[in-house]
Specification:
By secondary structure, the chain is of the alpha+beta class. Helix content is about 35%, strand content about 15%. The two termini are about 25 Å apart. It binds flavin mononucleotide.
């Protein structure tokens, strides 16, 4: 899929069908993560893949803003090291690359960030030096997606010419 088309049509999805995502696609998603650049090439992030239904259920139980993850086919926990000021930027880049790679194969995904910290860390044996930054749930979408009609501001509202406040005419 053309990169722009992929961005245009991708939505954050919270309803999944029961279809299994192949190991080949999962590996592609993880390769996309591995290949993503980090600040100073530190590669401080680590990824926990949850495929086991019981662990996916735990993800939902340990979440405060992502109980929908219970119906995903597999999930990836993104851990980053907060000793780097830019660790959240690294997390954003890698999660978007993983989501777009999945979407290229028709696999939808959603993310959540709210967790019950202590329980989550205990259940997934997260080392104290790493931050649980985001969780992505992947699966085939329950409904057909077109990506049309996204709820977004216009370029006119978002972009300025040369200096902040100068109306953009593009
Ligand atoms: C930093 C960040 C945090 C988010 N946290 C959550 C979350 O905790 N739970 C959730 O269901 N969605 C979460 N989302 C998904 C957003 O709600 C979603 O990207 C936004 O509504 C746009 O969705 P759309 O692309 O489908 O239009 C998060 C997205 C981002 C970028």
């Amino acid at each position: 899929m053309d990169t722009f088309e992929s961005i245009r049509t991708k939505l954050d999805i919270r309803e999944f069908s029961s279809g299994d995502v192949s190991q080949e696609i999962k590996l592609k998603v993880l390769e996309a993560a591995r290949l993503t650049g980090t600040g100073l090439n530190t590669q401080h992030w680590r990824f926990v893949v949850a495929e086991d239904k019981e662990n996916i259920k735990k993800l939902a139980d340990d979440s405060t803003s992502g109980d929908w993850v219970v119906n995903c086919n597999f999930a990836i926990i993104i851990l980053t090291n907060p000793k780097y000021d830019f660790h959240m930027i690294d997390a954003g880049r890698v999660l978007q690359n993983m989501q777009l790679t999945a979407w290229n194969y028709g696999v939808a995904s959603g993310i959540f960030t709210g967790i019950k910290e202590d329980k989550f860390r205990k259940d997934f044996e997260i080392p104290p030096e790493l931050n649980v930054t985001a969780i992505i749930g992947f699966g085939y979408p329950l409904r057909k997606l077109t990506g049309g009609g996204k709820n977004r501001l216009s370029l006119r509202e978002l972009v300025f010419n040369e200096k902040y406040g100068n109306l953009n005419t593009a």
